[in-house]
Amino acid sequence: MKWSLTVLQILMVVASLAVVSPAGAVNPDEILADPVLEARARDISAELRCLVCQNQSIDDSDAPLARDLRLLVRERLVAGDADSEVFDFVVARYGEFVLLKPYFGLHTLALWGATPVVLLIAIAALIITRRGQKARPGKASVPAVGLSAKEQEVLASLQDESSTPPKHEAES
């Protein structure tokens, strides 16, 4: 019984993931008759950003502008453009922001270089912290110390005071 319940749960998760997975937004009327050109168009569309959605490729977006860009890519391919020429045409028209993976250059150096620099800083900080802990093993962790006799007396008196009800003077 328990085994069949686990299998059923796994099947439900797989089925729900299949339903939620993103589907391409390419409409049937956009698909090219030549399968080689269509495959190239899909590859190019997967690397171009939808300017409306901004974090989705034009291949996955349902926005009207994404449809226009998909048609533009297909027009350029049918006209005989190479993939690089299609990218250059789209970048010239819409700017480099349209690329999901921007070109590496001086103007994008901070974008490409920030991740490795932050990673190296984090690794260096971790190493320095670990070395500091090894140098002074007694101070790395504070041992738990019990209360002194005097502190225990003070604590007991505070607990006694809080457990006894307050004394009210008789009103006259």
How would you describe what is shown here?
Helices cover 60% and strands 0% of the residues. The N and C termini lie far apart (77 Å). Helix 2 packs across helix 3 and helix 3 (64-78) crosses helix 4. It is mainly α. The chain has helices at 2-20, 35-46, 64-78, 83-94, 109-135, 137-140, 149-163. The protein is built from seven helices and no strands. The protein has a domain at 21-125: Cytochrome C biogenesis protein (Helicase, Ruva Protein, domain 3). The model has no long low-confidence stretch (mean pLDDT 79). The longest helix has 27 residues, at 109-135.
Summary keywords:
60% helix; 172 residues; Helicase, Ruva Protein, domain 3; mainly alpha; elongated
- At the fourth CATH level, what is the homologous superfamily of the domain at 21-125? Cytochrome C biogenesis protein
Q: Give me the CATH fold name of the domain at 21-125.
A: Helicase, Ruva Protein, domain 3
Q: Give the N-to-C terminal Cα separation.
A: 77 Å
Q: Helix segment count?
A: 7
Number of strands: 0
CATH class of the domain at 21-125: Mainly Alpha
Globular, elongated, flat, extended or rod-shaped: what is the shape? elongated
Uncertain segments are: none
Question: What CATH architecture label of the domain at 21-125 applies?
Answer: Orthogonal Bundle
Biggest sheet architecture: none
Q: What is the average of the pLDDT values?
A: 79
Strand content: under 5%
Structural class: mainly alpha
Give the topology string: H per helix, E per strand.
HHHHHHH
Instruction: Calculate Rg over CA atoms.
Output: 33 Å
**Residue share in helix:** 55-70%
